[in-house]
Amino acid sequence: MASSTPATPSTPQPTITAQNTDNNKLTLGTFPISKLLVQYSVPAIIANLATSLYNIIDSIFIGHGVGAMAIAGLAITFPLMNLVIAFCTLIAVGGATVSSIFLGQKNLSRATDVVNNVMLMCFVHAVVFGGLTLYFLDDILYFFGATEQTISYARDFMFIILLGTPISYVFLGLNNIMRATGYPKKAMISAFLSVGVNLVLAPIFIFHFKWGIEGAATATLIGQAVACVWVVAHFMNKNSVVHFDLRRRWFVPSLIKRMYGIGLSPFLMNCTACLVVVFLNKSLLEAAGAEGNDSVGAYGIINRTTMFFVMIVFGVTQGMQPILGYNFGANNWLRVKKTLYKGIWIGASISACGWVITELFPDAISSMFTTDQTMIDIAREGFRIYFICYPVVGAQIVIQNFFQSVGHPLPSIFLSLTRQLIFLLPFLWILPKYFGVDGVWLSMTGSDLLAAIVAAITVIIWIRIMNKRFKETGSIHKPITGATQPVNSQS
Questions:
Q1: Per residue, what are the HEC states of 20-58?
Q2: How far is Cα 285 from Cα 80, in angstroms, rounded to an integer?
Q3: pLDDT above 50 for 55
Q4: Cα angle vertex 43, ends 39, 45, to 5°?
Q5: Secondary structure percentages of the chain, helix, strand, coil, to 5
């Protein structure tokens, strides 16, 4: 629960501001929600857009500089990339949420413990997961749908990415903490450093040095290394609100367990995404027959485009997270609800824009990635079917991440499973048998629609429960010692 142990009397009581780097005095607990969302979400959206655009441009480089089968090989790596991200978010997202809640309770010493433990566990996760995956790399890629035509591209790309997991994990883990502790603009700069270096080096490595898909992976790793240095330097600076402190604890089992509990939702979300992409790849290979590799490549194009809009929504949820965590920890229930409602409308609007663009310009989007007409034709049909229900996706993502941000992982886990597992896998088992490749796209559409309906019902029920608790006790937290927390209804 978010109602963790309150700060001890000896804990320093700093003013936690919405943007410490600018010496801004607009606090998370009092400043208007709309302006705080702009303050926090816009930098996160810009950073995510930069990362998403890099992924798109990188795929374009690979498609035109290496070939159509390289795009298919890259698509084969998507499930493994989801697993790479999963083991990072398990600790990074939980750490960001817990640190925000501690800051809302003015417990700076515990927030410092969080950053120390996130740093340590990100490194441990990277070494264990990266090492095991490298050892079984070919077997994993074949299981994920690689063929003799695509295995070499997938292997060459992932080998370099996996070697760099200690760098990427520390970078991503600490960057989440940086944003959550009041530095959204610096977190945005981190992403710009990673993407900027990447975009400069990728075409040089691919087209000039002729390193092929390995050049793209190498550019990715170097970009993350530069950003990692920037982030680590921030937390070594004692002027940062939360920074490394050798005197504090670097391994706290109870704290790590709590971070795992909250991070379990995005972890399972990425793991189920991995599983789903495996089923999608194999369904496409089976349903398309001789055009199987082209269908997998077409899905890779659709996936990159989908993630462009999803990453914008994630930017909104990342901006919401410190606002929600702080105000939930501080018992500001009205501000929590206002943040949620505004986030839902923004998320739905973003995904609605995605639907309009992909319905109007499917060929133009596909042609950016490849000149292969077969792949373009398959992607066109996929865009038009899959994006039919896309407007509801943004709202579903916001609701799912809301529960995670207020320290309630179980509803978040359930909602992530509905969209990517509970509804999608049965559809994938049934629909392709009757509709072929179109059945694969229809499966994704149906899953999105049903998951959004379940998310809406879940959040309505939860809000009613919290409203009742707040009305009866003046607190949204379950009592710990019998003392009632003061009512704070700031709007």
A1: HHHCEEEECCCCCHHHHHHHHHHHHHHHHHHHHHHHHHH
A2: 18
A3: yes
A4: 115
A5: 80, 0, 20
Contact 446, 393 (CB under 8 A): no
Q: Rounded mean pLDDT of the chain?
A: 84
At 304, is the pLDDT very low, low, confident or very high (cuts 50, 70, 90)?
confident
| 486 pLDDT above the threshold of 50 | no
User: For residue range 10-23, what is the model confidence (pLDDT) as tens digits?
Assistant: 333 333 343 443 33
CA-closest candidate to residue 277, choices 267, 265, 269, 266 = 269
Q: At what angle do helices 393-405 and 292-329 cross, to 10 degrees?
A: 40
Buried b (16+ CB within 10 A) or exposed e, 371-398: ebebbbbbbbebbebbbbbbbbbbbbbb
Give the Cα separation of 333 and 40 in Å (integer).
Answer: 19
Burial profile 237-267: b = 16 or more Cβ within 10 angstroms, e = fewer: eeebbbbbeeebeeebeebbebbbbbbbbbb
Residue with tokens 């995904």: 351
CB atoms within 10 A of CB 476: 20
Q: How large is the average pLDDT for residues 355-383?
A: 91
Give residue for tokens 């290394």.
225
Band the pLDDT of 448: cuts 50, 70, 90.
Answer: very high
For residue 18, the model assigns a pLDDT of 38
Of 484, 460, 480, 469, nearest in space to 333 by CA: 469
Distance CA 94, CA 319 (A): 15
Quote the CA–CA distance of 5 and 91 in Å, as a whole number.
20
| Whether the Cβ atoms of residue 424 and residue 276 lie closer than 8 Å to each other | yes
Contacts of 325 (CB under 8 A, 6+ apart): 2, 96, 97, 99, 100, 101, 103, 104, 180, 405, 406, 407
pLDDT in tens, 396-413: 999 999 998 888 888 988
Contact (Cβ atoms closer than 8 angstroms) between residue 240 and residue 234 = yes
Using alpha carbons, list the distances in angstroms from residue 311 to 18, 175, 303, 453, 476: 22, 16, 12, 21, 31
Q: Enter the tokens of residue 425.
A: 């896998």
